[in-house]
Amino acid sequence: MARKYTIDDIAQLAGVSKATVSRVLNNKPDVDPSTRARIHQIMQEVSFVPSITASGLAGGRNRLVGVLIPSFSWSFVGEIMRGVSEMIGHTPYELLVYSINDMARDNDKGDILDHILSTKLPAGLLAILPGHSAPYVERLHTHGFPVVMVDDTAHHPNMPWVNVDSVHGSYLAVKHLIELGHRRIAHIYGPQNFICAHERYQGYCQALEEAGIALDPLLVAQGNFEYHGALDAAHQLLSLPAEVRPTALFASTDLTAYAVIDVADSYGLRVPGDLAVVGFDDIESSARIRPALTTVRQPFAEIGKCGVELLLALLNTPVQRADSSLLALSLPVLTPSEGMVRPPHISLQTTLVVRASCGAQRQQQSVDEIIPSKVL
Amino acid sequence: MARKYTIDDIAQLAGVSKATVSRVLNNKPDVDPSTRARIHQIMQEVSFVPSITASGLAGGRNRLVGVLIPSFSWSFVGEIMRGVSEMIGHTPYELLVYSINDMARDNDKGDILDHILSTKLPAGLLAILPGHSAPYVERLHTHGFPVVMVDDTAHHPNMPWVNVDSVHGSYLAVKHLIELGHRRIAHIYGPQNFICAHERYQGYCQALEEAGIALDPLLVAQGNFEYHGALDAAHQLLSLPAEVRPTALFASTDLTAYAVIDVADSYGLRVPGDLAVVGFDDIESSARIRPALTTVRQPFAEIGKCGVELLLALLNTPVQRADSSLLALSLPVLTPSEGMVRPPHISLQTTLVVRASCGAQRQQQSVDEIIPSKVL
DNA sequence: CTGTTAGCGCTTTCAG
DNA sequence: CTGAAAGCGCTAACAG
């Protein structure tokens, strides 16, 4: 409250030059320990808060990190953001949010990225986008702007990213169904422009192949990760003659699984009795619906945290310039340094959460035991 | 891309002083129209992007708006943010997000607000918080920092806010149940620290009173707006002897209603047959659950948009200083001005969305007609 | 290790 | 209506 102190005030109070104050502020090594302590003290006493704006102007880099997100409406975005904001809370950075308009034409993505690049307001960017937008994001990286792709990444070797191992998660889910005795296992695909849609399909194929089950094209249908986009696919699969109808289904998202369960119900098929269903994501409501959904849990908050960690590591390190990228191709993008602990590519593990919808649990489910679920 | 142009570059290209360029940039009136046009032209051609940082430093006010949110995990926050970010997209402002740590002790709110006040990074703040946090927020306002309370407001006459008319929405919901013939209508209350919990209760009481139905304390139980926090309350209400057991229930949120439906199921009570249920919020899944939930829809995105509008109006207007607040008490907080269209207090209407859970619809519901729902 | 000197890019008086 | 000059609060070379 009181008044707003500036670096000059602190310098005066401490009897040093403002350059020195600036040095302790930025943890430069070349400061006498006792001086440093005294300055820290004084800053504490008057509860000095440096101006982000001024340091940004002078230093050419603001203590802001940007996060580019698709629609706030997608619940997983909120989960990732929870991790992001919690992590940011432990740093001196503030959080700037850029969101792609819900009805954005495709090249709005380019526009907003251009905007970010031209304002250079944030020091770096976390981009949560469908994988096929990677080229846009890569432009930033090429221009030397620190950026980390998050969630649905193209595994681009040249750009830092954080994702989950969707292939393995899906593999585990389908393998679980196979172990439950199913042979006719269907899959509802996600939209083609998401890398992870392919990855989930790939995990599905892999599990089938390992079990020596031939892939049946009749059992694969196209969804779009959302509830309504899966209804047609579900109808298509469940209307098959009983002899060829799937006895189990691996959905590319939980929402897709919800649609399957509802459609199954409309066909008089019981889940899991007549159809075992497994989803992917483990969004909040999946533990609550009936039957509770067996699904592959993504560590959304952790994804966000890792993204921030990675980005901040990048910011403490001289950013890889476009000019020297040829060299970087074969080397790690980052040289090891104090701030740099993790490698520039992080792939997180998923876990299979077994609940009622896959039929693995025999016992009756009661309201009070909705939450406990076995985590493999 | 190319290089980054500065005001000086533009000034040089246009053959004027940078002061003039700055004037057109900020839409000051005192500029020769032709000069203004020429400068606009040039800025266009080189796609000049002024530095937010520099103008912030020089002008003392950054073109950033802050939004303070409780947990990203609450889905309604995402909806509000959707409106906020869409609105912000139409302005030259950027969006800064402050989020209260999930496991925040209560006075962290004070801390983060202090932080915002002392950094003065954003030009103004939209505060989405439980109503009982109003005093913290009011401190900002008292210090002359533009702030708008959003969603759960204390109706503080002295501070700008945006909310929905929860009382009336609840009244409509309960009235609808009464019109359906119910007399024993229960209510599950929200947490005491939310103003809107009281408002919803108030609307409930009002509808009962109007119908000449005596309020029965046995039929009111305490929840906390969340699913798990409502299970006990639901048990309490539904375990009543059949003669006194409620035939209908107005839940303070949709999540609360979900819990009621599940508990009813565990008692062998059919919804809506044995128990009509109405929620409040209309979150995304409420149209999808079975039975589809009759509920009071809050215009979340619109709340966000109005909040931004109001805040921006405040920013174009000399902010009410603490010193002159005595005068302001009896007058509108804002003097009318170009940027100021809406009054500083906005209360939005809710709508009752009638679906299956209240028993008003007789027809069988099929998967394909999950979405269509009657909006009163 | 520390002080001095220039600015970062823009806004803002204050004179014209 | 317009230009000149003086910073906003901080960082970043340089010299010492």
Automatic annotation (TrEMBL), chains A, B:
From which domain of life does this come?
Answer: Bacteria
Residues annotated as transmembrane: none
Which is a Pfam family this sequence falls into? Answer: Peripla_BP_3
- Which controlled-vocabulary keywords does the entry list? DNA-binding, Transcription, Transcription regulation
Q: Where is the HTH lacI-type domain?
A: 5-59
Enumerate the GO terms in the molecular function aspect.
DNA-binding transcription factor activity; transcription cis-regulatory region binding
Concerning PROSITE patterns, the annotation shows: HTH_LACI_1, HTH_LACI_2
Q: What is this protein called?
A: LacI family transcriptional regulator
Which species?
A: Tengunoibacter tsumagoiensis
Tell me the name of the encoding gene. Answer: lacI_3
